Protein 1
Amino acid sequence: MNIISDRLTEIGVVPVIKLEHPQRDAAPLAKALCAGGVPVAEVTFRAEGAQEAIRLMKEACPEMTVGAGTVTNAMQIQLAAEAGAEFVVGKALSLLAWNGFSITAGSQVYQGKALILAPGVVRQAKYPGEAEFLGRGVSYCATCDGMLYRNKPVTVVGLAPDAPQEANYLHSLGCQVVYVSPHRPQGLDGDIPYRKAGKLAVKGETTVTGLEADGALLPCAGVFILRRAVAPTDLLPALETEEGGIRVDRRMATSVPGVFAAGDCTGGPLQVSKAVGEGHVAALSACEYLDLQDRPQAAPAK
Ligand SMILES: Cc1cc2nc3c(=O)[nH]c(=O)nc-3n(C[C@H](O)[C@H](O)[C@H](O)COP(=O)(O)OP(=O)(O)OC[C@H]3O[C@@H](n4cnc5c(N)ncnc54)[C@H](O)[C@@H]3O)c2cc1C
């Protein structure tokens, strides 16, 4: 355990903050949270002025633990840290299960020996060809896989607010990017062509050769499908599911050793009380799993 996670555990709840008027509201909000016994906040970088809000909250309440949420790249981490953020929360984009677990969130890689999945309900229809070509031209993570497509034509299917930044990143690597989405994006580099389309299909032979967008074929070597959330089974295809949820036992252990799951992702009822209870059990089971890893000769827990 590190100091920050100890502190968050002790406080027990982390308010997620999005302020429209940081200059006006950040300091009073920080003081109110501290006075109410919740000296912690995660300020989401989705909103403009997040860096300013973090700085003002830390100034108003230096004892408060302030972090940055929805962080998607290294630049944002730097800005958040400069403002006084002590932790960052990002979207997990890829997961490697080897010798423990390595999770990529933005440009950061986090490692652990056990993993608790609690992404809520992630239901998403896949495009034709998407599952077939996953890892053979289809990617969900520009930061992780972008270098593989350097100087090659790629399409970005932009379904998440940070997708334009990811497309800009691919462009900066030298990829010839075409951006496809149902709505015109904000923040896309001016020299990246945009195509409005909703009906998509990934085409290929052994690897991806193109994306069909509303009937027109866009030849490319890679298709980056950037959604708001990544389904746990896309992060970890070995996870077994049951009626649409991650299959777990009473210890909230999944079919993958060391991986636990809790909340809506394990299926109904989709309610807070169930999510909280399962989270509690999953945390205890993960601790027990770690203890057993440290003492491999110990008998398995009953
Ligand atoms: C409108 C509405 C009203 C509701 N009303 C009630 C009610 O009155 N009573 C009740 O008991 N329940 C209610 N619920 C259901 C309740 O909100 C859920 O059951 C509960 O929040 C589930 O908790 P969870 O932690 O499993 O998932 P969530 O609360 O959905 O949290 C999951 C979090 O994981 C994040 N995430 C997902 N993927 C990733 C990733 N790849 N990387 C990083 N983060 C990720 C998500 O962004 C989200 O913040 C309501 C739900 C909705 C939508």
Protein 2
Amino acid sequence: MTRSLLALLVCVAILHGYSSGPPDGKTGRPGEGTCLDCHSGAGPADSTDLDGLVGGWYQSDSLYPLTLSVRYAGQLRWGFELTVVDDSGNGAGQLIVTDSTNTQYSPAAPGYLKQTSAGTFRGTSGPTSWTFSWRAPAAGTGPVRFYWCTNAADNNGSTSGDKTCRDSLVLAETGVAEPGTVTGRRFWRYANPTRDRVVISYQGSAGTPARIYASSGRLVRSLTPEPDGELLRVVWDGRDAKGQIVPGATYFVRLGEGIDRVARVELVR
Ligand code: HEC
């Protein structure tokens, strides 16, 4: 009799714990579990997006406001857990709570950001998003990986009928993927540094535009590559999308999806 009462109390305590945020270590990072350990169904990775990290790289010590979103037709309650690690699996930079009503931070290594009870947006049909910030780590940290797992739940107060959607994102440190230091460099030819015209020939997919970013991460210009024999070629006249001449500085040209597809260009005026 006493034992079953104790078991019931423990059970109630555990359930109470979960509704105030998921347990640590469920982001889908290698070696970790996911929300699927307890919640019933898997959903596709394209149900969730992490926005605010343009270009596939980060600038050390910079502050990035981020938005994590999830959508799933028919679901009515929402949750997530996110972490960011370096190559050694240590927490990379700092995850910063900017909306303490809806998100909370758990310092258990490597550090987790997750929803609060209010942040499950109970009874709403989504898409749902949470905002927070990330302070990028010190120079020399190298590539970092974000891992996150979202739960698009059905608001039935149990783990059945829910959809777990997981995804991850790799970011290179700016300056790491420079010509001469990356595996893809044999595909590239540069006129660099340059005064008024930047020509880059490379092997890639004609359907993917070349995107030029300032070192702050701001998109400056998007260019459609033209065929150049077996290669593709982009010619940048040093102007932004409005036709304004951009100042002499370092720019990054993203030629494709991989982190080895970012070329650094010095524009000299
Ligand atoms: C160890 C088991 C366990 C894991 C792992 C787990 N949960 Fe849960 N979760 C529960 C239980 C049990 C409930 C139901 C009781 C409650 O609402 O507190 C629940 C309920 C929820 C609910 C409310 C669902 C509804 O339909 O009412 C959300 C949202 C949620 N969890 C998010 C998450 C997210 C996001 C993750 C992964 C990052 C996660 N959970 C991982 C056990 C777990």
